[in-house]
Structure formats: C-alpha cells, structure tokens
Design goal:
With 424 residues, the protein is an alpha/beta fold. It has helices at residues 76-86, 92-108, 126-137, 160-170, 185-202, 221-230, 250-263, 271-277, 293-298, 322-332, 338-355, 381-385; strands spanning 3-8, 17-22, 25-30, 40-42, 47-50, 52-57, 111-119, 143-149, 174-177, 205-210, 237-241, 266-269, 302-305, 371-374, 389-394, 397-401, 407-411, 414-418. Helix 5 links the parallel strand 9 and strand 10. Bound molecules: fe (ii) ion. Fe (ii) ion (FE2) binds at residues 56, 58, 117, 209, 240, 308.
Amino acid sequence: MDLILRNCLLRNTKSFVDIAIKNGVIELIEPKIKEKNDKELDLAGAIVLPAFSDPHVHLDAVLTAGHPRHNESGTLLEGIQIWSERKKELTFEDVYQRAAQAIKWSVAQGTINIRTHVDTCDESFVALRALLKIKEDFKNFANIQIVAFPQEGVLCFPRGVELLEESLKLGADCVGGIPHFEWTREDGIRQLEIVFELAAKYDRKIDIHCDETDDEESRFLEHVCALAIRYNFGEKTLAGHTTAMHSYNNAYAFKLIRLVAHSGISVIANPLDNAILQGRFDTYPKRRGLTRVKELLSAGVNVGIGHDSIMDPWYPLGRGQMLQAAFVLLHMCQMSGRSEQTSVLDMITYNNAKALNINNYGIAQGNIADLVVLDAYDEFDVLRLMPQALWVIKNGKIVAQTPCLETKVYFGDEKENIHFSKKL
Ligand code: FE2
C-alpha cells in the first residue's frame, strides 16, 4: 500500500473506517485494516470527503483587485470595463504567478479539479498561453481544464470568431460563450450557434456564461438547451450563472426548468460573485439574483457551485475555498433544512465532479484517491465551520497539509484549549 488512513469518518456513517490506497487508487475500505504500512495517518475521527471541484473560476484575472482601480459601483459591467484596462498590462509571468498562487490556495483547501475560464479576446493569447503552461506544470497537483472565454463578445469584438477558434487550436479544452453580452438578442443566439459548431468541429466541451443579468428578458438558456439536445451535447455542456432565471415569471421558469432537465446539461451557480453583482439596479426590495437552485435540483438537474472570482474586478474578496462559496449559497437559497445541507455538500463534491466529467470519483473501492480530510468530526459541521483541510490527497499522494488549530482561552487564572468542532 502507498498510504493507509486510519479512523476516518465518512458521510452518512457513525462508525470509523480505514482506507488503504495503492497506485493512486482506493484499494480497500474496511472497519479495521490489519495490514501495517510504512505510511499511515491516524485521522482520529476526522471526516474524509472526495476532493472538491471548482467548475468555474477565472485564473487569468485572480489577484488583480484594485489594478488599475477598484470596482466602486460593484456592477458586472464596471468589472468588465476595468478588466479590459488591466488586460493591456498582462504578461505571461504576471498571469502565471497569480494563477499559480490561486491554485495553491485552492488545493490547500481541498480543491483538486479546477475549470478555469481564460479571456480569449486578445490577439496575443498571453493569458491562454500562461494557463496552458500552468496546466502542464501543475498536473500532479491539480487537474485543470481551460475554457476559451470570449469575455468581450464574439460578434461584437473584432475577429471574435477567429480568436475563439484559434484558442481551441492552441489547446483550450472547452468553448466558452457570453451571449447576453452581444449587441442584440439575435447576435447572442448566433454566438451560441457558433459555440456549438466549434465544439463539434474540434470535439470540445461547452461552458457558457449564460444570462448573467437581472434582465428577465434575457433568455439564452433555452437556446443552450435546444442546441445541446440537437447536438447530443447534454453531458458535455455547462451553463454558468443563469441569474436571470431569478427574475423570470414562474410560468416561464417552470417550462424552462423542464427543458434544462430534458437537455441533460449542468448548471453552475456562483454565489460569491452574484451576491455582490446582482440587484445593483434595484432599489428596494433588492433581488438576490441567484439562479433557482432548489427548483433545478428537484427537477433532477445537475447543479454545482463555482467560486468564480478570487480578488478580481468583479469580486474583491475570496480565498479559493469552495466551502465558503457553498456556505453563501446555502444562505442565499435558504437551503438550511437538514437534507438541503446535505445537498449543498453534494454540490461541491459529486455534482461539480459530474459537471466536469470527472470519472471514478468518490470514496469507493477502485476510485481515484483524490481526498480531503477536514477538521470536522460530524458531517453537518463541514458547512457550519468551513474547517481547514488537515490533509489533501491527490492520486494517493499528500499535496497539502495544515495543522489542527486549537485556541487557548483564559478566564481568571485558568486556561483551556477549545476546538470549534468538538462540542459538549
Ligand atoms: Fe465567470
């Protein structure tokens, strides 16, 4: 064996198990594995989850907040304007270093599978080239997928179609889109057709920024679904944001959600960014501007959660922790019921992995040993505490470790060590 984890707590169980890993794969899960191994970790009842996935982040823009200026209005459109100014200063080294830092933060907190968008409205493709190099250099540390993302449009940007196609030839894994950014509705629909034509031609997956607006007239998701059905691309297609769904009338939303389920596409909500960006044109009451997560889930749609931004022109906060994104979604979607909390944890594990087409995922014999051990001793403490990742394991190898934190409290002459996940 390469590694044996002792006394692990798994979800939906009370008793502990041992997990043996060999050649990067989970070899055995038993209450007590007799075999002794050189390399063993005693988890003392800490919970083990399959590693998190982040299906939606912008690694080319991370850690640029405030450069050249801060987004004072907090709107998506000011963010895009600031980014187009910052983009002129991008260098290979600049993108590489910032992205590397964000990946290390993410992996340290248990995220192994990462899908990043990269802005391809750039004749030099400097960010794409840097992220392709990152993908190769970090392959033993994180699984990275790259989306060619036409941030400033396809038809409304000079040579937009050619730039998108060129980025696929350079090696992007997915074709991206942003139909609501085009000048007209018709151009938005044409953009989506181009995206599907390119994906079919180059055998790539599809990942659309879709209807990221509070405009209830923005209805591109139905076209994404229709095209996914016609091209038989359901499992290979992902729609991010879909925040306009929050504002659709209920009759249209009902029809649309059935279509989304029928198409087989995945939907990714990005609660951190959209909590900040949406509702900015409202007075009171202010819309929350998040897609209809509960309704999509109950219709059988695979819904996941993305981090989206880490300190960039759209979202000035963030640390690359998927638990934080899940925590915010739980609140904004009011998923506080016991079974709903379980669903939110599924979203950043199983649902996100499914959206990214990750195979052999999960804690079962024969699956890839991509695991995270959290400083929590009860499944329901994972979202309550957003605990640190004590160990992060990729392909059976430890790629990050954080010591267990204890706080000393002093009262009078006495002192005591307290630990937030150990309750009376
Ligand atoms: Fe995004």
